[in-house]
């Protein structure tokens, strides 16, 4: 026992001596601040009763020592934390006699470490990490975004490195928090997913105090709170509060409150595990709170249950307390508010009494001027922030499996009573217009308009229905462009017609009659039962001035009325006035689109309610099999609804819709869309989901009408004309629209700004993005119930109205803004999967935050958890859309500010796109490839060259996937938007931008922005630069810009031309006169166009950055001199046009072209020859080279057995009597081939070749030769048919445009070409390669260049598979050390089952000085198929040792073949699954 005046430890108690009253007061303060205990003063000193923490428990690994003399007391703390790689970091704490703290950290880790740190407690502590003052910063310390300090470690004596921290005086703190960063690799080290957490005080008060305190249960250090738990807790508390609508600031504050609530529970002894059980829903939150309040499971006597106070009243009271306190920032008065209200209930007041007192207006002092509040602080600049540490997922699990869009039974169109009449009308040339309308209970009405004498003659309008009850046509007409309902001229009334309501009526009632006597209706049967039809016909004479027929249908007893989606039916009448001639639907062939246009243009009464009901009907029809292409149909409805949401269509015309009725229409439409989402898959499902973003959910629409009146009454605002409030009230009462959300937000901002009118108009103008969606003064005045005035300031009611309208805004958003995050979270609260809540809680609290990465990650994690529950669930779909929007908006805010660190956003945003896209298979493989990259890339750090190369290849693949997804959207909806937009009368500029706006508003655009921020740094780290030189020569020419190189490959430029081609596949021909091709595409270095460019000495370069290409495009029509640099780039300068005179465009490097000639071989008299019979004039160079390699290569290089159908075999077969007619047709077709644009004529030639009858002798000899060479022979007539088709396909490839143009350029007649065909077994390739034994990019003879792909080699040479191959170079004196220059980015591999391949082997492919390789086809007997390549699971990328060994063996193969043949070679081969290498062909390298 240490004497009084010093610290003693007895088991788990601390004894402190008596102290003065002032000291006791100090002790109370300390204990209240740190340990939430109640302290009192007794005769023997302080006594206490624990209401929170009960004491301190020594942490594991902590040593505590005491020194008797107070003035010399030192307490030492020592702990060791593990680091990866068997390293550790050791921490020592020394606490001085005056409370000063010295912390020493030491480690043997070899990295360039930085201590990322902050403290808790100390000077002016307000929670979170505190940054000590500069006097406490060790040398070299810098502030990290004002959120942490970063201190470099210094070498320590005796080895390792260390950091020393001094916290003196007021800087002395309670805890040190830190993580470590290796600046050399960008790697972060933490403690099991949390910060390293070190207590800096081991005693609470000085040794001069004496008291007794139980240390049994209170931990010295609270456990770190996982972010997911904090998010779930915030969500649970928001849900328990009734899912209130909160501002962003309120959400942030509530999130912080939830964290403090968790800490309070931990201090009271609640375990982290128990809190997790509540978060996971194993313990119901309300029951758990009640249980703990009753004392069950916790220490202490049961507390009396508190009176129940509605949360809404607590919120109001807290707001009033906050106002009374001077509106302090960050203050929370909820607890005081609840206690005060509970006390009033205990005193006898009722909840109704409290409500009346709180909800009545709170008048301000008379005459008090309107407070001019200071402008809001500028938002903080976006920061990337730190990752939440996302869960590992298998992206391939996200692939959306294709499902039948609709059942075959539905697509087959069930038997319908009016089906035959529809078909007849469709075939009737006199029928100029027809529509079928649903009448409910599976009945329909067909309207057919016929003009048998042409549009200027008489018109017959027939309405036929299978409704079983007697019906009446209640109708009128319209003239010109007027939508007014007019009385029809009596001459067109059908028999039995009469005015609907006497002589003054403008409507006519015409009864339907039985159609049994009509020939086309006499025997209509469905399922064997006869169906009776009824009909009415109107005959309109020639020369009329009618524009349309307007009508509804009623039952004869007027008990049932039928409308078209809530509006009148409208039918155009041809032949009327010129204004009516401009039928908006004319020229639109799609029946669905015509129906939409008719409703929009021809309906006299039309509102959002009518539109939504009609859309519901049309979608139901699509789901019932009413469309041959449901995807196209749903995309059409989306475009229509998108035009509506963008305010390009009227929201109200001649009709007022009460909010309740509009809400019903919205609810019906959104439920129907959700049904479509469940019934479809792939792209169709994507359009169904997108539709929800164009229409509000519906919600409690009646509350829109009721609550505005309640607000006015509660605040004593009279319903007085001539005021802004009453004008808005009348609009809301009669026709609420999404504009009301903007108006409400503007009014709230106006109130909060102290009645500043500029704020009101500013918020309205900012509400619509882009500008055409803004709510302008003109728009407000255009409403049927116009808003012409500006709002009043209501100085005496401003604060109460602000509260009221924030709640009202939630009602409006629930109705009109389905994808609003808070509104959708409220609606979906009851259906949320438990795992979503934590992520959603964080997003709700931080959705406008400037810290980007954790917000994006939480939003995507929430979407991921929702994905399995979305199908057909409207509320979850809305929430999913809202989360997508949050992630997209955050990424767009932060992409530019994140710099190279934006790499951390790529994975989440790619997953975001995966979740949103219908046909997402390729995107899923992209996501998997990105996730497989090293952490230095995916975390946005600084990768090595090798890692950056891998990342660049993945980004190339992602870029193509984004482009494909975006192009698919544009190609689908672009034509629809154009036809509908023109018919609707939408401004041309918006029609033209429609598809682009949809793409830019989607998740692909945000990802593209981030990639643009990441790519430059990655390419620099990979030493790639902006340019890739495929054919490095200088060039002089005039700049021309083309969309695709294929568009101009047959063009002859009159002067040297530099082409900027935006699309190059690799299989095009370089056009005559072209001296340079620059492109953003990256065809393989060994593709046909690449080889041709090098052979022709044409500059060919790929640019991976938009800037240089934009600069060159801006110089279109100018003359440029382009020069390659030693660093692998291109520079250019504009020069005078005169320099083109007499120039070939290539300068001194462009050699004159030699004149070529071609020998025409004669048929050798054999249909098939083996390798021993290969000779000049019999077979081509491919065959001869293979034969010549036998016995000259190492044993590990294999040659496949081969036979060849020799030169002249095709011509001999064509000359057979069986093909005499075809021969004449082919000769005529060849004569008709034009000098340009020849592809159509050449295709006709190929079709004729494919009809050639192959002689039986050819098949017989080919079979014998194959058997002798041990090549598998087709085993059936069907298999032989496929083999001979492949043979003829190779013959037919003589007639292709690229080859024709290529031969013409060098003066060769393509008729002189003869085609031998090399036949081989298809080696079942795992990989395929092409080798150039001299580096094609530099011409270096001592370097072997290889390209390797997964699957067949056609993926390299054909240009059919975009993307790069795995490219490498190896010095010939170091073939064991290949160097990768490009990693693969091809999305697909080409595969074929065990089969035969027929390879072109013509006399025109290997002429000296002419690159004829790749001009003609090689065709497999069985069809090749494209399969997605999963590089993350392939040894080629995953196993560096395997990769280097394979690349080395391939390079050695090329060198061995060059040695055997004595010249540079272009080699093709493949690798079997067991690693065996086969060479399938070789030829001299051009």
Can you put this structure into words, describing what you see?
This protein is of the alpha+beta class. Among the domains are: 147 residues; 123 residues, no CATH class; 170 residues, no CATH class; 119 residues, no CATH class; 125 residues, Glucose Oxidase, domain 1 (3-Layer(bba) Sandwich), CATH 3.50.30.10; 316 residues, D-amino Acid Aminotransferase, Chain A, domain 1, CATH 3.30.470.20. Helix content is 37%, strand content 19%. It is built from 44 helices and 52 strands. The chain has a seven-stranded mixed beta sheet. Helix 33 links the parallel strand 35 and strand 36. Helix 12 packs across helix 30 and helix 25 packs parallel to helix 27. The radius of gyration is 40 Å and the shape is flat. The termini are far apart.
CATH top level assignment of the domain at 1169-1484 = Alpha Beta
Which overall shape is indicated by the principal axes computed on the Cα atoms?
Answer: flat
Classify the fold: give the CATH topology of the domain at 1169-1484. Answer: D-amino Acid Aminotransferase, Chain A, domain 1
Number of strands: 52
CATH homologous superfamily of the domain at 1169-1484?
ATP-grasp fold, B domain
CA gyration radius, whole angstroms: 40 Å
Structural class: alpha+beta
**What is the share of helical residues?**
25-40%
DSSP strand content: 15-25%
GO molecular function: ATP binding; kinase activity; metal ion binding
Cofactor: Mg(2+)
Domain Alpha-glucan water dikinase-like N-terminal Ig-like: 78-200, 434-572
InterPro entries: ATP_grasp_subdomain_1 (IPR013815), CWD_DUF7067 (IPR055495), GWD-like_N_Ig (IPR056301), GWD1_pHisD (IPR054481), PPDK_AMP/ATP-bd (IPR002192)
